[in-house]
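Entry 12.
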Amino acid sequence: MDAHLLVDRWLSPDDLEDIEQAFRAAGLRPTVYRAPARRGPEELNWLVIAAIPLSSFLTTMGTKLAEDSYKELRQLAHRVFGRAPASKPSTLVLEDQDTGTQVLLEPDTPDDGYRALFETDLASHNGDRVRYDRSQERWVRSSG
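Predicted 3D structure (tokens):
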């Protein structure tokens, strides 16, 4: 499976190699694109956007790894988050290539959130941005 990674422009070559390796270890073939320099005062609030066939990826990962599939996804996310400076917010966005649905993974997403992602019907969120809501203990449409 291919993964198209749009990465923040400040990532060093070593950090980028580590991120690519994390996606390879998850069974994906990454192609990297750097985000262009922004001219506005605001910076992007994400570190990496990964455009992948998301439903297939989650199904394959779940089948391959069974009960512990969420741990592999969590490790992938934390390898990406480890590359962000503390002064900048970091989010890993998994975007489905077919539907445009975006899953927002943040550094503090709990294990239950990763587990719940494998049970979430992403087709019902066609084209939405979704985030894990701790109070509802499920993935919900993001307002921002």
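Annotation: The chain is about 30% helix and 25% strand. The beta strands are 2-7, 29-34, 48-52, 92-96, 102-105, 129-133, 138-141.
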